[in-house]
Amino acid sequence: MIHCREAIREKERKKRGKKRGMGDKMWKRNKTVVGDSRKNTKNDREDTKEHVEDRGRRGSQYTADISVEDELYYEEEKSGCNDSPLSESEFLHALNSKVSICQDTILTLKELKHSKCLNKFDNMANHLEWMLTDIHRLCLDQFGASNMKKYAKPNYSHSGLFGGESVDSKSFDSNDLENFHDALEELAETQNKYEEEKVLISRKKKSHEKSPNELVKISSDNCQIWNSELSRDGLPVPKPKVSTNIFRILKDCIGKDLGHFAVPVYFNEPISMLQRVCEPMQNDFLLSKASCQETPELRMVYYAAFCIAQYAGSHERLSKPFNPILGETFEFATPKWKFIAEQVSHHPPISACHVIHEDYSFWTNTHVKSKFWGKSIEFKPLGVTKFKINSTEEVLTCTRPSTYLHGFLIGHKYLDHNGEMKITMDSPSFSETPSVKIKFHKLGLFGNLQKIGKISGEVYDSLGRKVYEIFGNCTREINYKSVKSDCDSIKLWEFPQQPENWDENYRFTDFTLKLNMLTEEMKEHLPPTDSRFRLDQAYLEKGDLEKAGEEKFRLEEKQRRRRKRHQKEKFIPKPLYFVEDPDSVNDDFASYIYKGGYWNHKNTKKWDHLPDLFGPDSLEL
């Protein structure tokens, strides 16, 4: 038995040394384990202790790097018995604990229902059990029954788990040593793997409970499709070439009831406003970078770049998105983040959205007031966008500049963003926080359209001192540099090259082309209020202006009838997944924040509470 145990230890040392790339010398110990005092150095013992303690900090009960003997050395050092020989009873006790862990692993596997691994670990447990029986018998021969009475073999038979027979004791030879060590290493690695999986399942169960952030990741059972993984080269047909001057609009108004006049469908692009507010998330990497910066000033820099980049490609994107129906929703899911938007108000029209990410959350309200200035129309955004960093609990708030439409009567039509963008920070750690001011330069009456989109700005620290400069063009690239050093500027963002048929696709980016995609598989998982189910948008994608106009008019008339019915019944519809923010910083209109519930409903596919927005008129009550 002495030679058997010595062989086991020598095998452990060699395997440890090879696995860690440290050689046999690093882990070599005195081969005469019984009868001679150990000659291990203090460094060896400290190394073992460090690894055992590190294993405990990782929360792993057994790992492949720590052997049975390592644990016994550490126990000896704690008890002050550094020079005492390792007793057979202690070695047997360590083997008993290994078998116990194997039993726990089998129970874990059975709970997780990994049927493919059950037989494998059942055999491993049997192997350890009969080895334990054989070593126990040899220990009795070596020490005698009286000395081994308190270490009597515990009953670890697991035949009751799988209904099988217990395995008889077999002879113990050198081949079993290798199988034993391989089994322990594989057991340790797989134990860690399935312990992590068990924790993950526990977290998923807890995340199903109602909370402001709900799930960070969507259940793979109900959300098999990531919208970000879908792609298409373009729309089914190119954008119809239709004259959109004011005189044609007046011609279309002849003989019609102006009280029910709607903007002609050829002024629209085949997405709704709810989908439009999702477009800034194509630059989500800027939010991820902002959330991991070390200083609040740098976090402001990257968030400012995100807010500026949403204007990319917009100066000649003149088609307007469809107005959402009250109660209409839109979702977009990626492996990193989830987006949900809802039309929360019809008069005035307000769209609210919320993004969930494991590192941050982002939400905004879209409400625009328009003014006619004779030669241009001003669109002033009243809503604010907010970005919360989970690690620091900082909330960054952005107010946006106005947008002007030029040449809508005569001349070349284009959009020009003009004014000041302000970003402030609310931090629980600091009373004084940094701020950002970005100026969107006006093009001018005879300006070159190639220079449109110029921006410049500064980032100020908590004391009001300028620390960074931001400059560039929102249509091409954004850069920043420190005012305290002579280092070159750093590029934050660059607008990607667009295909040649960009204009034929309403100047949609690759990301925007995914927003209105609707596959047969997606129909099973989306609520009936999702914007993708709007037929007027689908007809416009296919270039059928007549059907698109008819469907658009039908949906608007259906909404009017529903509103009259609500007025008659004195019923005030409320948002489904958003609620008014009592701490809104803007008093011009109500601001809305996400209250939760959407992703829980999606996981259970319970949409009975949703109104019928796009169905046939015959289904109306």
Automatic annotation (TrEMBL):
SUPFAM superfamilies xrefs: Oxysterol-binding protein-like (SSF144000)
Protein's organism: Euplotes crassus
UniProt KW Coiled coil keyword: yes
Upper classification of the organism: Eukaryota, Sar, Alveolata, Ciliophora, Intramacronucleata
Protein name: Oxysterol-binding protein
Pfam family, one: Oxysterol_BP
Stretches with biased composition (Basic and acidic residues): 36-57
Family, as annotated: Belongs to the OSBP family.
InterPro entries assigned to the protein according to its UniProt record, in alphabetical order: OSBP_sf (IPR037239), Oxysterol-bd (IPR000648), Oxysterol-bd_CS (IPR018494)
Single GO MF descriptor: sterol binding
Region span, Disordered: 8-61
One GO term of the biological process aspect: intermembrane lipid transfer
A GO cellular-component term linked to this record: membrane
Keyword tags: Coiled coil
Coiled-coil region: 177-204
